Amino acid sequence: MFQSVLPFLRAAELDDPVVCYQGALVADPVTGEFLRHIPIPLAAADEALDAVIEAGFHINAYVDDELYVAAATPEAHAYADLNQVEMHVVGDLREWLHDPPTKLVAVGDPDALTELENVLKPRFAGRLFVSKSLPHFLEFAHPDVNKGSGLTFLADRLGFEPDQTVACGDGENDRELLDWAGFGVAVANAHEEILARADLVVPDVEHEGVAVLLETFLDSRQ
Asked: pTM for the whole thing?
């Protein structure tokens, strides 16, 4: 979410546009302007809500960079607490949702979500982007949305090329990101498909592998 990224951008004193929501949203952190926003068509969102809820999973909906849930369940708290954002409880999301959401996220047991992903990916092929971000988050976005397309938009706007780009990833939703970048990096505990795509593997998240990469790069330029 854009609002959850802002504190980190301010702490790092960064003012370049930021890619959020799997690439569905690119925003200017200075003005708050949405430079790119590709939400899920409402009909597809309604169908995805039906499928996830009928399968027995909690689901989050994101509209105008706010988090909406049917009830304050443990799963809702798991996302809101992780991302340090407020959740808005609105009751039945299928009755409440009247605007195309930026993203939907099913939250639950990793193995059960994998089974759901295997069912819904072919069902929504060409109509929704469906991928896990973390093992317990299954995400739904517009079919033209992924981190690679978000980065393409940013590259065109700022004027850089894939061969000037290093991308770091860990989850299966980082496939397109590493495919686009000229040099792909995976952390050691990354999804197997990300490890297979990587030009370099750095230490896992517990050992701050991405920080080690950035510090090594900056040290090499001194």
From this structure: 0.89
